[in-house]
Design brief:
261 residues; 2 domains; 9-stranded mixed β-sheet; 8 helices; 9 strands
């Protein structure tokens, strides 16, 4: 494993901080890490590609978009934010904060407990679930999703996400490479993969926690001449669970400003 191109930090719903990444990467034998926080460009990264303590860090993001039929997650790599992208991410973050506050109120009314949670930019349902698990409510992290804040739950609040056409345009304008995240996680992978006609790549290497048939992804790569990407989708501190080998990273690096393969 040479490059882990899907990692979340405390800027969204991950546990890693940027200063921790080099040591964690070296421990996992990883040379390249892409920070891809949800709907947010990490504020501590000041360039599309940079080196920190011998580890290459790619500034990226994971943006949820709505096609009208389904919601998909797109990955942007080598981000150089435009004013339009920053404005849209600010709008999405305001919606995230308002949504989290509403869910906290609903959970507290439902359970009769008070949650210890600071609601700020980058907040998501995992933050609410952790607060539930650490409270006097009779639910652990998974139970919070199952009984309270999962889709259809009594405390679930929907998000107002970016429409797909706008999101793709914003990422293509500001990123060296755009890709569809974890294509085999969607209910209809074939339908999800159609968006790749407007993208540069697709997350080919991903640990789904189960045996999957990569044939639909391989077919999309061939059909749309896509670059394969890959990563661990780390929300904890483990890096290198999945990703690219050195040759795979070299192909991606050629698309990113300042990257060295």
């Amino acid at each position: 494993m040479y490059a882990d191109l899907h990692v979340h930090t405390t800027a969204s719903d991950g546990q890693l901080t940027v200063p921790e990444i080099p040591a964690r990467a070296r421990a996992a034998g990883v040379e390249v890490v892409a920070v891809t926080d949800h709907d947010r460009v990490h504020p501590a990264l000041d360039g599309p590609v940079a080196e920190r303590d011998g580890v290459t860090i790619v500034r990226g993001l994971e943006l949820r978009v709505d096609t009208g039929e389904r919601r998909l997650d797109l990955l942007g790599y080598g981000v150089e934010p435009t004013a339009a992208l920053e404005a849209e991410l600010d709008r999405v973050q305001r919606d995230r904060v308002a949504r989290a506050r509403e869910m906290v109120d609903l959970v507290e009314d439902e359970t009769g407990v008070t949650l210890d949670l600071t609601v700020e930019a980058g907040v998501g349902r995992p933050h609410v679930a952790r607060a539930v698990a650490e409270s006097a409510a009779p639910y652990d992290y998974a139970g919070a999703f199952e009984h309270l804040i999962g889709g259809g739950g009594p405390c679930y609040v929907s998000r107002d996400v970016t429409d797909a056409e706008t999101g793709i345009a914003l990422l293509r304008e500001s990123c060296g490479l755009t890709a569809l995240a974890h294509p085999l996680r969607y209910r209809d992978p074939e339908a999800a993969l159609r968006v790749c006609a407007d993208l540069d790549g697709v997350e080919r290497f991903y640990d789904y926690g189960r045996t999957v048939d990569p044939a639909p992804v391989e077919a999309a790569i061939e059909r749309h001449d896509l670059l394969p990407t890959g990563g661990s989708d780390a929300h904890d501190r483990r890096l290198g669970v999945d990703g690219l080998d050195r040759a795979g990273w070299a192909a991606v690096a050629r698309r990113l400003p300042g990257a060295v393969s």
